[in-house]
């Protein structure tokens, strides 16, 4: 059996987030801290990546003071509680090859110490020296005890409501070991 391991290069990787509320959207980036992927006979067999919740950046708010307040709020217990839970982790439990370079994946996502299974599709383009993974994961934040201004838990929010789902657009570049 031919086994090939790849390690995520966090400097060349990018994770973008989008959150929506009644009155608009916010977007930004978050650091891919580390990760790895293993291929058996050129087929993805396992993988894991870690996102640093302390590295959340907001790109759509230009005012420095407002941006800092929002970043601190996202790091607070209302959202990611980054001091207590600095890492969010996605671990591939099963990868089923589909069309060229696409896998249907079941994995465990852990945020704030809470783990839920999710299903997504990954596109991975691999050479001998590099593997590039792209995916979009839609996450229901309320499953991870992120309840702030959620209509599942609060009423009469009006235009302060924040939608439960947020997106992570993940682009990981991994180097062969």
UniProtKB/TrEMBL annotation:
InterPro entries in the cross-refs: Lipid/polyisoprenoid-bd_YceI (IPR007372), TTHA0802/YceI-like_sf (IPR036761)
Top-level taxon of the source organism: Bacteria
All residue ranges annotated as the Lipid/polyisoprenoid-binding YceI-like domain in the record: 5-175
Protein name (record): Polyisoprenoid-binding protein YceI
Organism the protein comes from: Chryseobacterium polytrichastri
């Amino acid at each position: 059996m031919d086994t090939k391991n790849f390690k995520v290069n966090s400097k060349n990787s990018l994770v973008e987030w989008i959150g929506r509320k009644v009155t608009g959207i916010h977007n930004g980036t978050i650091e891919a801290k580390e990760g790895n992927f293993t291929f058996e006979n050129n087929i993805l067999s396992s993988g894991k990546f870690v996102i640093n919740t302390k590295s959340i950046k907001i790109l759509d708010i230009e005012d420095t003071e407002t941006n800092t307040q929002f970043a601190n709020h996202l790091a607070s217990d209302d959202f990611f509680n980054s001091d207590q839970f600095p890492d969010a982790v996605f671990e591939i439990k099963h990868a089923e090859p589909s069309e060229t370079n696409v896998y249907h994946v079941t994995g465990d996502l852990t945020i704030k110490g809470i783990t839920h299974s999710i299903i997504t599709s990954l596109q991975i383009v691999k050479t001998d020296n590099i593997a590039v993974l792209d995916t979009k994961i839609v996450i229901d934040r309320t499953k991870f005890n992120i309840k702030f201004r959620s209509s599942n838990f609060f009423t009469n929010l009006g235009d302060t409501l924040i939608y439960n789902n947020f997106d992570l657009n993940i682009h990981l570049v991994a180097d062969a070991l």
